[in-house]
TrEMBL record, chain A:
Family of this protein: Belongs to the glycosyltransferase 39 family.
Pathway: Protein modification; protein glycosylation
Name of this chain's protein: Protein O-mannosyl-transferase 2
Entry's EC annotation: 2.4.1.109
Source organism (scientific name): Chrysemys picta bellii (Western painted turtle)
UniProtKB/TrEMBL annotation, chain B:
Keywords: Endoplasmic reticulum, Glycosyltransferase, Membrane, Repeat, Transferase, Transmembrane, Transmembrane helix
Membrane-spanning residues: 68-88, 100-120, 154-174, 186-203, 208-226, 246-267, 579-597, 609-627, 639-659, 671-691
SMART domains, sorted: MIR
Protein name: Protein O-mannosyl-transferase 1
Any single GO CC term annotated in Swiss-Prot or TrEMBL for this entry: acrosomal vesicle
Pathway(s) annotated for this protein in UniProt: Protein modification; protein glycosylation
Organism the protein comes from: Chrysemys picta bellii (Western painted turtle)
Membership in a protein family: Belongs to the glycosyltransferase 39 family.
Superkingdom of the organism of origin: Eukaryota
Keyword Transferase appears in the UniProt entry: yes
Compartment(s) of residence: Endoplasmic reticulum membrane
Record PROSITE patterns: MIR
Enzyme class: transferase
């Protein structure tokens, strides 16, 4: 490893010598200028090119030019971190390999990463098509690894802080907190290999399960409700895993901002916001999906930004690396929650923009363009799709035992699950009169034909017994097949010979529990007004002619027998000609929120109107082991998605329920109680650090103002100095992307009908924090640029320092929110938090 | 002085015969036999009731949209001398002689007819040939669905008219921009754009989509203006301010004005009072105002009050108690305190009266002078008829086991002490020392011992609770919700010491001396909020459809059916036009993308001018179609085919645009051009034929036989009513 690194480093140095002038130029054009490089008070690329020796000087008080942007040299003592004279590129060679005497080398860090993956500006001069990519692409992929301490020290520092803040008091409280009850439980299901149903894709819970498994948790803790003590069960592994991923967010944000703005202070500001935000800490410390989701999300953003920076060297190894890493992270993000789609959208828009730029570049041939397009299709569409599918493959392979989620799925699906009554099923194969059956709707996530003792309420069709579709297995799902014209007793008589039901027969279905017949008539169905109502009618099986149904099998000829499970059955009402179906709409409270069953007069071949026989009990027939239809993998995949989507849209808030509204979130209006209610409890309250959040909020306004000014100024053709152009470039391009990310992760929630929670905002909050870093950095630079040399430097340094101190101090005030409070509530004047309840809606 | 006489007075009039002819054709086509059928057709039953209410000046709330459209219809009724006496209860009911059906239907028909010349003019302003413009107008003229919709007392044609007017005036304005900004004509068209937009939004909220589109287009144009460096900064600023004034300020002001007129016209209380707050109701004549008129404003210790829940969902109700107790055990086996029930009751009742009592004193009457109750005071609430105290304790509520039960305390001598102290928190107070006022102030009752808040859960109790609504005590943990807020509605100062006298007092009506007036803005905000949030139960309609059905017109709506003759009116479009419009859209999008990609590679297939024309016309037509169509995919309300008509209008305008582009740029030589023209003639005649074929269903006459009707059922999914003989 060491040898390898040394080798590649050598190559790097060598190459740098060769491309010296160009790189030098580009570095000056990049915002390297903004790093206090003693003696490098350069203002324009031209100036930089003209006066290279100035860069070598290390005199701390080099005078600045008057008219140009006076960006001052910085004596190391005045900066928050001791800055090392960055000796320009040629001088770098003489840097000690281990920077013992320097902790942070702000300028050098740029010098390192800047030219390697140039900013947006640097890819403008594209290579002509067909020119071979530059040599030795391999080391570039791992470029950061060879970097000297200068790059790594601040990164290591923020990473350390991040890990420390997330892992501090990780095991507290030692009981189930908030949604741990769900995700912990689902982790256990994976360990126990029990099938369950959840509205989110499986990756997050699989990873939790894996972490638990590896850390020695045996899956026996029931996770029944929040507040249950863990006792001897090992839960630290799972929490630690989530905390680990949550801690990674900070370095990711740091690197992203650094890459985008080329400014160390911006990166540090963004990182410190995330480190010291109580909300992010709390959300990372428990067994939840959010840290996992945000990990992949930030990973995707980081690799997208890195990939953009490598745009001047397309098809190089690092380019491929970051591009495919973006795809991998995207797959991860959607694999955890569907909210990951927003980051997919962000990356998608970025890619479209990229391709559009490439298309406009006439120096590229169509073939090259095609390659670009294909590379992106492969890395950003096919690769994530494959990975996403693979997750499901693992999910289905692991969960092979019957569990609480069975009823949501079709008969075929259930036959895969060990312990389900359809697994290796042994039933009479052909339907006969007198059989007791259950009928399952073929629609995705369709229910069993169901009835119960309750009547339709007044005003909803005829006041007869309800017939619904029900997703759970239940005795009320049982029906008896009878001949339409004969009486009940016949079939039970042992002397009576078995008669099979055949395609095209007219039958009657009697509900076993209530002995009413399946009935339909020309009344409006309760929800789907175009259809007819289906009821249970008659006493002890005696009804009228509206109880007769013709049973038909799809794609069969008349007279054939009807098979259990295999046959797709259609029931046609004899009197009205309508077809029994399930509309998929949920009935109101009177119908126990089960699914509506109707008789549709429109003859359409939809799965809504098709049923299959699932259970089949007939003592007179021999049970035969059936080779049940094993569904193919694509079918399972499609089905589970339909079920998830239905589940998600079913999470509607109830009337008079207090729910969190999206507008609450950015203003930190109200938190979420993770643990503890009373004074004596150990209380954890998910609430953002208000100073940080309000700073973020203000920054969004500030950003819009600055961006508008910049863009209008450019449009009006105001003559800007090169520095301001540079600044507005960062502001509009990098800031714009981040802003887009924030919008994409925030606005869609306004249109969602489902129940929303405060924690849904956190992905958007990550973007908002990065934006804060970039915006304030730009603002301070702008102010500094207006002032005189030394003043400007002071404003910039102290401004950043003040912001960071503010953040740290507010964290000191609010840290009990995440690390737990005991004692009187904040509304009590004796509480240590008494003065901190700034909004009445906070409840800690 | 008399110099002007030296010159002859010359009036030069330019008359565009095309335009006149189109207008006349439109009028004939839309106004023909307008008062047939003399029966309620489809949604006339819905809009008619509002017209009647306008005539009677009775207040109503319609959640389907803002009031301007209803007002226009009512204006028609006013012109015809309608007195509002008609029972709008069923489709197909014959109109009385007092219903001036012709003038009620006139306005929609006129606006529908004017859409034809508007379409012509729009294409002319887009710099397309008069031939193309004439074609567009003809297509609108022969579109059966638009005809049906405009011949009845419905709002879509009015909406489409205002949308087209807004587009046209913006185009006029934009064309004037280049040569003569800030002239009278320029201002006229700019302001007209704003006014037309606000009218469109005022008729139906759907108008908002087109308004947004116009704002976006104006934004793009302004952006070009900013980039125009020949203009000085000041003039750019003036341009922007003028646009801001005309396109934002004027529409908002107009919108407020509609509501102002609406609220001024409707000053009587009526059937929808209940959903408004007490304060709003008190501002209407009759109704609550009659009851509360003159009651004391400030609640004092000893006051007798009724408490209304502010949320009013699922229905408006008042805090109520009665002699019955909670059952010892519920159906599911849980136990209760077996104390007296406290519910929320949706009707006025003597059992809704409560007395505010000072915990420190025994008396239940108001002292002299009255001691007012202020924010933060602790009170007891005594039920007037049963004299029991409002109480809550750590017992699960009947239907919401996570919350506390609210009861009127009965002392069973078991270890369950009374916990009947409540802190009054005025939510919309201005000062912390505010006195609790009736009607205006919304109050939260926080239980002193458990800090639970008195709340309406929205569930209705089973039989033992007489199906009244459940009241619970919710731990104050989940923020504010209107269901936790109460306001005093009826109020009097209690005078009787004895229970018997008090009962008599409670039964007597309240006395009066002050009235309350809400400001217009307060009333507007409340009404607007109610319109936006009020949700009817979205039960599916027989003729409702999904947006996907609309493109291909897989659905129709039967509007009216004569029970004897079998004549019928359907909302059914000109199939050929719809299909052509779809094809045109597809062709446009494909060609646009093709040009766009090629231009990016610096290959210009068409000249720059043609490209600009192509983009602007397409942006308007395809954009208009998209913004008026796509949002419906995200809507959860019941949708009908007529929601597609605005989008369809835009799509129809696109047909001639695409056709002219094809002839101009793709048919290079003369022969294909001739062939193309011939094709056009054939195509236009078939459109006319289709229009003729379906016109019996459009106009409702002549009556067709069953066989003819069956022949008209071109699609299986169409629901054409055929009588069984």
């Amino acid at each position: 490893m060491g040898g390898r690194a040394g080798q590649s480093r050598g190559a790097g140095w060598g190459r740098r010598e060769v491309t010296g002038p160009r790189r030098f130029l580009s570095r000056c054009a990049g915002s390297v200028l903004w790093h206090f490089r003693p003696g490098s008070c350069l203002t324009s690329p031209a100036a930089a090119a003209l006066r290279p020796p100035a860069r070598r000087t290390t005199t701390p008080t080099m005078p600045c030019e008057g008219t140009r942007l006076r960006f001052p040299p910085c004596p190391t003592a005045r900066t928050p971190f001791p800055l090392v004279p960055c000796a320009g590129m040629p001088g770098r060679r003489h840097l000690p390999r281990v920077g013992a005497r320097m902790t942070l080398a702000a300028g050098c860090c740029q010098a390192e990463s800047g030219p390697r993956c140039g900013g947006l500006r640097q890819r403008r001069p594209r290579r002509p098509a067909g020119e071979p990519s530059r040599p030795s692409p391999l080391p570039r992929a791992w470029a950061p690894l060879e970097a000297p301490v200068g790059v790594w020290a601040p990164l290591a520092f923020v990473t350390l802080l991040s890990f420390a803040s997330r892992f501090y008091r990780l095991s507290e409280p030692p009981h189930v907190c908030w949604d741990e009850t769900h995700f912990g439980k689902m982790g256990s299901y994976y360990i126990n290999r029990t099938f369950f149903f959840d509205v989110h894709p499986p990756l997050g819970k699989m990873l939790i399960g894996l972490a638990g498994y590896l850390s020695g948790y045996n899956g026996t803790f029931p996770f029944q409700k929040p507040g249950d003590r863990y006792e001897h069960h090992n839960y630290i592994g799972m929490r630690g895993f989530c905390a680990f991923l949550g801690s990674c967010l900070v370095p990711f944000a740091y690197l992203t901002v650094l890459e985008m703005s080329k400014s160390l202070y911006a990166a540090l500001l963004a990182a410190s916001i995330l480190i010291f935000d109580t909300g992010c800490i709390t959300l990372s410390q428990y067994i939840l999906l959010d840290p996992i989701l945000m990990f992949f999300l930030m990973g995707a953003v980081l690799s997208m930004v890195k990939c953009n920076s490598c745009a001047d060297r397309p098809f190089s190894a690092s380019w491929w690396f970051w591009l495919s890493l973006t795809g991998i992270n995207l797959a991860g993000a959607i694999g955890v929650k569907f909210v990951g789609l927003f980051v997919v959208l962000l990356v998608g828009l970025n890619t479209v923009y990229d391709l559009w730029e490439l298309l406009g570049d006439l120096s590229l041939s169509l073939v090259t363009l095609g390659k670009h397009l294909l590379a992106r299709v492969f890395c950003l569409i096919l690769l994530p799709l494959a990975l996403y599918t693979a997750q499901f493959a693992v999910h289905f392979a692991v969960l092979n035992k019957s569990g609480p989620g069975d009823g949501f799925f079709s008969s075929a699906f259930q036959s895969r699950l060990i312990g389900n009554n359809l697994h290796n099923v042994s039933v009479p194969e052909h339907l006969a009169y007198g059989s007791v059956i259950t009928m399952k709707n073929l629609r995705m996530a369709g229910g069993y034909l169901h009835s119960h003792w309750h009547l339709y309420p007044e005003g909803v069709g005829a006041r007869q017994q309800q017939v619904t579709a029900y997703l759970h297995k239940d005795l009320n799902n049982l029906w008896v097949i009878k001949k339409h014209d004969s009486n009940t007793a016949d079939h039970l008589d042992p002397s009576y010979s078995v008669e099979f039901v055949r395609h095209g027969d007219v039958i009657r279905l009697e509900h076993k529990e209530t002995s009413r017949n399946l009935h339909s008539h020309q009344h409006e169905a309760p929800m789907t007004r175009k259809h007819f109502q289906v009821t249970g009618y008659g006493i002890n099986g005696t009804g009228d002619a509206n109880d007769f149904w013709r049973i038909e099998v799809v794609g069969r000829k008349a007279g054939k027998r009807i098979k259990v499970l295999r046959s797709q059955i259609r029931l046609t009402h004899l009197a009205t000609g309508c077809i029994l179906g399930s509309s998929g709409k949920t009935l109101p409270k009177w119908g126990w929120e089960q699914v509506e069953v109707t008789c549709t007069p429109y003859v359409k071949e939809t799965p809504n109107a098709l049923w299959n026989v699932e259970d089949h009990i007939n003592p007179k027939l021999p049970n035969i082991s059936l080779d049940v239809l094993k569904p193919s993998f694509p079918e399972i995949l499609l089905e589970s998605h339909m079920v998830m989507i239905r589940g998600n849209s079913g999470l509607k808030p109830k009337e008079n329920e207090v729910t969190s509204k999206p507008w609450h979130w950015p203003i930190n209006y109200q938190g979420l109680r993770f643990s503890g209610v009373n004074e004596t409890d150990y209380r954890v309250y998910l609430l953002g650090n208000p100073v940080v959040w309000w700073l973020n909020l203000v920054t969004i306004g500030l950003y819009l103002l600055m961006a508008t000014c910049a863009i209008v100024a450019m449009k009006r053709g105001v003559q800007l100095t090169a520095e301001f152009k540079e600044l507005s470039e960062v502001l509009l391009h990098s800031g714009g992307k981040i802003m887009l990310g924030w919008l994409l992760h925030y606005l869609p929630f306004f249109m969602m009908g489902r129940v929303l929670y405060f924690h849904h905002y956190f992905p958007a909050m990550l973007f908002s924090s990065m934006l804060t870093g970039i915006t304030w950095d730009t603002l301070l630079k702008f102010c500094a640029g207006r002032l005189s040399c030394s003043m400007g430097r002071r404003v910039y340094t102290y401004g950043t320092l003040a912001l960071m101190l503010l953040i740290v101090y507010s964290f000191y005030l609010f840290h009990p929110l995440s690390y737990g409070m005991v004692g009187p509530m904040a509304s009590d004047p004796n509480s240590p938090m008494a003065g901190l309840r700034w909004l009445e809606s906070w409840e800690f | 002085m008399l110099g002007f006489l030296k010159q002859p007075v010359v009036v030069t009039a330019e008359i565009n015969v095309n335009l006149v002819a189109l207008t006349v054709m439109g009028l004939v086509n839309r106004l023909w036999a307008l008062s047939y059928p003399r029966a309620v057709v489809f949604d006339e039953v819905y809009y008619g009731q509002f017209v009647s209410l306008y005539m009677k000046r009775i207040f109503f709330v319609d959640d389907s949209g803002p009031p301007f459209g209803h007002m226009l219809l009512a204006f028609g009724g006013y012109l015809g001398g309608f007195d509002g006496n008609f029972l709008w209860n069923r489709i197909g009911a014959e109109y009385n002689m007092n219903v001036p059906i012709w003038s009620l239907r006139l306005l929609p028909a006129l606006t529908g007819a004017l859409c034809v010349p508007l379409a012509y003019q729009i294409l002319v302003e887009l710099h397309f040939s008069h031939c193309a413009a004439f074609g567009a107008a003809l297509l609108i003229l022969f579109e059966n669905s638009l005809i049906t919709q405009s011949r009845l007392m419905l709002l879509e044609s009015v909406l489409i008219f205002f949308i087209l007017l807004a587009i046209l005036s913006y185009l006029k304005f934009y064309n004037l921009q280049k040569c003569s900004p800030f002239t009278a004509g320029w201002w006229f068209w700019l302001l007209l754009t704003g006014v037309a937009c606000s009218c469109a939004v005022g008729v139906k909220y759907m108008g908002l989509f087109t308004y947004m589109l116009l704002l976006a287009i104006a934004g793009v144009h302004s952006w070009h203006l900013i980039g125009d460096q020949t203009l000085s900064n000041v003039s750019v600023l003036c341009h922007l301010l003028a646009r801001g004034l005309a396109l934002v300020v004027v529409p908002v002001a107009m919108y407020l004005f509609f509501f102002y007129v609406h609220l001024t016209l409707l000053y009587r209380s009526g059937p929808h009072d209940q959903i408004m707050t007490s304060a709003f109701q008190a501002s209407l004549e009759g109704g609550l105002a009659r009851i509360t008129h003159g009651q004391p404003l400030e609640v004092a210790y000893g006051s007798q009050i009724t408490l209304r829940n502010v949320l009013g969902k699922p229905m408006p109700c008042w805090l109520h108690s009665h002699k019955s107790t909670y059952p010892i055990r519920y159906e599911n086996g849980r136990g209760s305190s077996h104390q007296q029930q406290v519910t929320c009751y949706p009707f006025k009742d003597v059992n809704n009266w409560w007395i505010v009592k000072d915990p420190g004193m025994q008396q239940l009457v108001v002292s002299n002078p009255p001691r007012p109750v202020r924010h933060g005071h602790i009170v007891q609430l005594v039920h007037g008829i049963t004299t029991r105290y409002l109480n809550t304790h750590d017992v699960a509520a009947p239907l919401s086991p996570h919350s506390q039960e609210i009861s009127c305390y009965i002392d069973y001598n078991i270890s369950m002490p009374a916990q009947n102290l409540w802190r009054v928190e005025i939510v919309n107070r201005e000062l912390d020392t505010d006195v609790w006022k009736t009607i205006l102030f919304e109050v939260r009752f926080v239980h002193v011992n458990t800090s639970a808040v008195l709340k309406l859960s929205g569930a209705s109790l089973p039989e033992w609770g007489y199906r009244q609504l459940e009241i619970i005590g919710e731990k104050l943990s989940k923020g504010y919700h209107q269901s936790m807020l109460w306001n005093v509605e009826e109020h009097r100062y209690g005078k009787s010491q004895e229970q018997k006298e008090r009962e008599v007092e409670l039964h007597s009506p309240t006395q009066a001396d002050i009235s309350k007036n809400l400001s217009f803005m307060a009333r507007f905000t409340e009404l607007q909020w109610k319109i936006l949030t009020l949700k009817n139960e979205d039960t599916e309609h027989k003729y409702s459809s999904s947006p996907l059905d609309w493109i291909t017109m897989d659905t129709n709506i039967a509007y009216w059916f004569h029970p004897i003759s079998g004549a019928q009116i359907h909302l059914i479009g000109n199939v050929l036009t719809w299909a052509s419009a779809n094809v045109a859209t597809l062709v446009y999008v494909c060609l646009f993308l093709w040009y766009l990609l090629r231009r990016r590679r610096k290959i210009c297939d068409i000249p720059e001018d043609a490209w600009r024309l192509w983009v602007s016309a397409g942006g308007l037509c395809v954009g208009g179609w998209a913004v008026n169509y796509l949002p419906f995919f995200m809507m959860e309300k019941t949708l009908f085919l007529y929601h597609y008509l605005p989008a369809l209008t835009f799509q129809i305008l696109l047909i001639p645009v695409v056709l002219q582009h094809l002839t101009d740029h793709l048919c290079r030589s003369q022969l294909p051009k001739n062939a193309f023209s011939a094709l056009m003639v054939a195509w236009f005649s078939s459109i006319y034929l289709v229009y003729r074929t379906f016109s019996p269903l459009t106009y409702g006459e002549p009556t067709l036989s069953a066989a003819e009707l069956r022949a008209l059922r071109w699609k299986d999914s169409w629901d054409i009513l055929i009588r069984k003989h």
